[in-house]
């Protein structure tokens, strides 16, 4: 397997010990060096092969970190992408640092930050730059793969996670809830009389209403909650480590937020409301059964006049003495 060779188009901006240095990699093969602390071609081939084993960026940085630590000592390594979507940190930060902004063909891939309690020598920074030459292309591939994967899990209109992402995340959350005996709840909500909005104002206005409601959802839930567009005008919120009481309180807060939202689309002022169903995981239920319970609760909210929250009270996490179908209205 050929080793990715350095190119004049691959630049590593090195800020070492508060001194800025720009290293433009020349167009030449990496030559083996006789010094024992400098990686030879065989070792670089081993690194290149290791970096080809994964497209997960976090795992890729870990592999790079482990191999780098075998060549020179450092106390910590930190990697972040420009959008801060990915952040990897290993070790305890030291007093002295060596920082690289990794750029490929003008595309900023991320920043690699090494630290330790004694300064990095020029020889060591040269070694790091040689290692980064092998890291840059696998990193570029993993980031592209990650972006494509996230795009496949995202609803294009609202920016929320989509149905495929819900299937994946809910199955995982159910597995974790069973393993650690923690509560899990979901909120299913549907815009009231949304068809009338499309019929009266047109689908472009309807799309903007959906976007506005999605924004209200993001603002109303907690950081630990995951919001999905379930389909059409339906949305879902997955609440890990949350019982029925906490979920119903959050559902009511979401309902009020949408009802009170000022949704202006061009010359139109749209008054949107939602009907909501809440359910919690009970025993050995699967994702389909949990969603079915929430859907039943949502159906009751629709039948009882809309713009309300209905709760299915049958969870084993909270011993609530109540009928199977209970209604909580805001």
Q: Any key phrases for this structure?
A:
330 residues, alpha+beta, Beta-Lactamase, Alpha-Beta Plaits, six-stranded antiparallel beta sheet, six-stranded mixed beta sheet, 8 helices, disordered N terminus, disordered C terminus
Report on this model:
This protein is of the alpha+beta class. 40% of the residues lie in helices and 25% in strands. The chain has eight helices and 14 strands. The strands form three sheets. A six-stranded antiparallel sheet has the order 2-1-5-6-3-4, covered by helices on one side. Strands 8-9-7-12-13-14 form a six-stranded mixed sheet, with helices on both faces. A two-stranded antiparallel sheet has the order 10-11. A hairpin with a 2-residue loop joins strand 5 and strand 6. Helix 1 (41-51) runs parallel beside helix 3 (122-152), helix 5 (194-201) packs across helix 6 and helix 6 crosses helix 7. The termini are far apart.
């Amino acid at each position: 397997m050929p080793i990715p060779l350095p190119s004049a188009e691959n630049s590593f901006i090195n800020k070492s010990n508060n001194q800025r240095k720009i290293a433009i990699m020349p167009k030449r093969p990496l030559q083996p060096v006789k010094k024992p602390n400098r990686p030879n071609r065989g070792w670089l081939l081993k690194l290149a092969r290791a970096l080809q084993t994964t497209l997960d960026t976090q795992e890729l940085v870990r592999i790079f970190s482990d191999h780098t630590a075998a060549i020179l000592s450092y106390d910590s390594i930190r990697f972040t992408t420009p959008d801060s979507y990915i952040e990897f940190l290993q070790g305890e930060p030291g007093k002295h640092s060596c920082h690289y902004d990794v750029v490929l063909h003008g595309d900023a891939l991320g920043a690699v930050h090494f630290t330790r309690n004694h300064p990095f020598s020029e020889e060591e920074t040269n070694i790091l730059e040689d290692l980064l030459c092998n890291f840059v292309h696998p990193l570029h591939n993993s980031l592209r793969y990650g972006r494509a994967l996230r795009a496949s899990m995202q609803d294009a209109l609202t920016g929320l996670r989509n149905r495929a992402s819900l299937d994946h995340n809910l199955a995982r959350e159910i597995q974790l809830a069973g393993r650690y005996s923690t509560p899990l709840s979901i909120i299913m909500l549907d815009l009231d009389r949304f068809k009338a909005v499309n019929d009266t104002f047109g689908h472009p206005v309807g799309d903007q209403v959906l976007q506005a409601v999605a924004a209200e959802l993001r603002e109303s839930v907690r950081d630990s909650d995951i919001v999905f567009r379930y389909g059409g005008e339906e949305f879902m919120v997955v609440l890990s480590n949350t019982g029925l009481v906490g979920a119903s309180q959050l559902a009511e807060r979401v309902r009020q937020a949408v009802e009170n939202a000022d949704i202006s689309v061009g010359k139109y002022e749209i008054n949107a409301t939602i009907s909501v169903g809440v359910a919690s995981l009970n025993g050995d239920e699967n994702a389909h059964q949990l969603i079915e319970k929430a859907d039943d609760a949502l159906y009751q909210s629709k039948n009882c006049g809309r713009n309300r929250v209905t709760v299915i009270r049958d969870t084993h996490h909270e011993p609530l003495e109540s009928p199977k179908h209970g209604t909580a209205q805001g």
